[in-house]
Amino acid sequence: MQKFIINGGARLEGTVKISGSKNAVLPIAVAAAILGDGVSVLHNVPNLTDVKTLSAVLEGLGASINRKNGSLYIEPINRMEYEAPYDLVRKMRASIYVLGPLVAKLGRAKVSFPGGCAIGPRPVDLHIRGLENLNANVDVKKGYIYAQSEKLIGSDMNLTGQYGPSVGATANVMMAATLAEGTTIIRGAAREPHITDLATFLNAMGAEIEGIGTSKLTIHGVKQLHGTEHTVISDDIEAGTFMVAGAITNGDVFVEGITHEQIPAVSDKLSESGVQLNWTETGVQVTTPKELKAVDVKTVPFPGFPTDMQAQMMGFLSVASGKSIITENVHTDRFIHAAELNRMGADIKLEGRKAIINGVSYLSGAPVMASDLRAGAVLVVAGLAAAGETIVSRIYHIDRGYEAIENKLNNLGADIVRADDIT
Predict the structure, then answer these.
(1) What CATH number has the domain bearing residue 55?
(2) In the beta sheet, which residues pair with residue 278?
(3) What percent of the chain has pLDDT over 70?
(4) C-alpha to C-alpha distance for 338 and 328, rounded to whole angstroms
(5) Quick one: 244 and 123 in the same domain?
(6) Together in a domain, 168 and 306
(7) pLDDT-derived band of residue 19, with 50, 70 and 90 as boundaries?
(8) Does 129 share its domain with 179?
(9) Is 170 exposed, middle or buried (CB count within 10 Å of its CB: 0-12, 13-18, 19+)?
(10) The domain containing residue 53 runs over which residues?
């Protein structure tokens, strides 16, 4: 395993270019590999562990995937494999995306329950309910999801769950519905930017999806989809992470390749805290006054504050003046990073779904451990602002969602080194 060694205290300055969206490219690659007839080319694809893992899953199903100069060349399945291999699926939750497309294309699927970050239970009941609404028979036994259907049939359904719209279920059912007979209406659909990008890609393949970007998607089933060429949108969570990194170090950072429309709630909360954001056609300039103010944050589905930015915001608010309260409404157990931030001198108390943060004047470097992707990101961000040396272990979590994060930060003036962890 590897670790990051961070010497904190440097003020970040310069320009950072945001990579393609991990959350967009994963379902788009699934659609290209399973649903399409013909080669698809995806541009602006980040070089991430999750992308490599999913590529291996799709290759195991019979697709051919080649990477060249930041693009993926995907030739769809050329043999009738319907079982996603357990040893790969267990590594990442996004593997569940193959379920609906396999049923739509091959009439059946066998997918093990997916793995991924340890941030609490994230059930797949909405995925299953959505496919059953499309006339699929779904059974769960011995850790596998079995689904089959002689013919998917369009249906009117609502995919709102206990904590709001489901991003994963929206993507899965939308992909399956493109090849279903008749019309499917998804009410309570997720509206995240990567869902919009997926729908745009599917339409470029020949799908007929209406209401893109809204909570009501109407999908008219077609006979077949074809390959196409598509440029993946920039990663809003990576952009938000670098915005926070610039702000917490009192820096002057231009985050290139992001729009306000992709990340409205994070932008609003940073501005409310006193961060100065100057938006242009190509990105946003982030500058910070000497004192940051406490703000309250509640995670909710897009266009609200994203749960994937909750950890980074917690680190940021740890050094803001006053008391902040973060309420986590999406993932029940996503406060693991609070204990690690407290090791660095933060003052965070947990009460159920709430984290009460009393801002401190400074953080101190310490050995800390990443427990999941975004928890790892906040430890890097906190280490940049902390006095002294911070060692972040288990950084393979971070590599799942951030492309060469240490190089990008060092180009902004940070002092961060990747090293082998031999302990």
Answers:
(1) 3.65.10.10
(2) 285
(3) 95
(4) 13
(5) no
(6) no
(7) very high
(8) yes
(9) buried
(10) 22-231
Residue 137 has pLDDT above 50, yes or no: yes
Let me know whether 256 and 221 are in one domain: no
Number of domains in the chain: 2
Annotated catalytic residues are 117
- Does 199 share its domain with 262? no
Distance, in Å, from the CA atom of 127 to the CA atom of 171, rounded to the nearest integer, reads 9
Strand partners, 368: 392
Q: Tell me the Cα Rg of the chain.
A: 21
* pLDDT surpasses 50 at 173: yes
Collapse the DSSP code of 340 into the 3-class scheme (helix H, G, I; strand E, B; otherwise coil) and give the result: helix
Q: How would residue 121 be classed by pLDDT, with cut points 50, 70 and 90?
A: very low
Name which residue leads in pLDDT, 99 or 92: 99
Nearest in space to 346 (alpha carbons), one of 333, 327, 365: 365
CB 390 within 8 A of CB 383: yes
pTM, two decimal places: 0.93
Residue with tokens 């590529």: 55
Give yes or no: residues 275 and 227 share one domain: no
Q: What per-residue confidence (pLDDT) applies to 123?
A: 65
Identify whether residues 139 and 109 lie together within a single domain: yes
Q: What is the pLDDT of residue 88?
A: 67
The arithmetic mean of pLDDT across residues 108-116, rounded, is: 75
Domain boundary (231, 264, 296) is at: 231
Write out the H or E segment, with its range, that includes residue 357: strand 354-358
Closest CA to 336 of 376, 393, 364: 376
The pLDDT, as a whole number, for residue 179 is 97
Does 7 share its domain with 35? Answer: no
C-alpha–C-alpha distance, residues 95 and 76, integer Å: 16
